[in-house]
Amino acid sequence: MTKNKQTMKMAAAIIVLVAAAGVYFGTSAWNRASQEQEAASEDTSTDITSLSSDDVTQFSYVYNGETYTFVKEDGTWYYDADREFPVNQSSIDGKLSSALSTTASRVIEISEDNLSDYGLDEPSNVISFTDSEGNETVFEIGTDNGTTGEYYCRLGDTQTVYMISSSLSTMMSFNIYTVADMESFPSIASDDIKTITVDDGTESRNLDADDDASAFSTISTLSYSAHVDYDCEDMSVYGLDDPQYLVTIKYLEDSGESADETSAETSSEETDQTQEIQTDETEAETEETSGDEEETYDENQLSIIYLNIGDATDDGYYYVNLSGSTEVHLLTADTVSSIVGTSDTGSEESES
Q1: Gap between the Cα atoms of 239 and 320, Å rounded
Q2: Domains, the chain, ranges and CATH?
Q3: Alpha helices of 68-156 — where are they, by DSSP H?
């Protein structure tokens, strides 16, 4: 009997503890929801910081588990781990301006005991800004609110949590190559492309402007999907030492005169043009009757681009670069297929 009584008392104690825990967590969740609802009832649009982007001389952020730092010296931004990295200055300025103009829709006071409720015990991103006087402002980004889609954020180790849009964390968590100042594919008008040759290592094919119109169109509007390496020392890493395809593009560069030059020459040529009008009209009529003729151009006037297409990635892209350049970029498998005229470039890899 004594053992039974002890067992019953122990079971009752466990039940009481479980019930107490349920009440605690239920109350905690209710308090959190109550705080957010109360804050939401107030029409707030609170500035999180008064720091100006012009005053920032250093910032860091977390991307894919790694911390990246940029520093500003003599008005120029540098990637701290590689001072030779070609930083696009306007891209950095734009990111800072947008990030520091973030406002909060709600303000919630919390305690250190419930940081985990907001994902702030293990922040998904820690963004740090340092001004010219050495003052540091740190943003910790927590989890998102399932109802509003906003994120919990706090400054340093304060007890104040702000509810903000996802733009701050998105804006300040990026691959450094998205802010790289690198080469673009040359802009070429479709009509100026005279020949495209595709060499796959087995055969070399000259594309036809009519039968392969999509290739000519693609080349004329081509832009890289992303930058990968600004100074590649080993092209074999990307399969570009022995590319799958070598695309040779020959084209005429725009040789049009400027408006000022044309205007200056017009008055001096008017008399001669007037005298030649009748002769030109007669010659034009003669040419029309002779039918269409093939376009002629001087081969020596053609510019040439060699586009190397290397290995495919696992997510539907190809590494590419221009001969003579140390830069490596990405093109989608669909773009490559359109250029080389095959349907097997990518297959499963290009699906996303």
Answers
A1: 9
A2: 48-179 (2.60.40), 190-254+297-350 (2.60.40)
A3: 89-100
Nearest CA to 250 out of 193, 325, 300, 210 is that of 193
Listed in sequence order, the residues at least 6 apart from 120 whose beta carbon sits closer than 8 Å to its beta carbon are 140, 142, 152, 154, 161
Q: How many other CB atoms sit within 10 Å of the CB of residue 168?
A: 23
Measured distance CA(335)–CA(219) in Å, rounded: 9
pLDDT beneath 70: ranges in the chain: 1-44, 255-295, 342-352
Residue 297 is predicted with a pLDDT of 78
Quote the CA–CA distance of 25 and 27 in Å, as a whole number: 5
Q: Which two tokens stand for residue 29?
A: 């969740």
Closest CA to 240 of 316, 324, 297: 324
Compute the distance between CA of residue 277 and CA of residue 313 in angstroms, rounded to an integer.
Answer: 60
- pTM more than 0.70: yes
In angstroms, rounded to a whole number, what is the distance separating the alpha carbons of residues 177 and 225?
A: 11
Per DSSP, 87 falls in state: B
Q: What is the pLDDT of residues 227-282, one digit of tens each?
A: 999 999 999 999 999 999 999 999 998 755 443 443 444 444 444 544 444 445 44
Q: What is the largest CA-CA distance in the chain?
A: 131
Cβ contacts of 201 within 8 Å, gap of 6 or more: 242, 244
How many whole angstroms separate alpha carbon 85 and alpha carbon 67?
16
Q: What are phi and psi of 283, to 5 degrees?
A: -65, -35
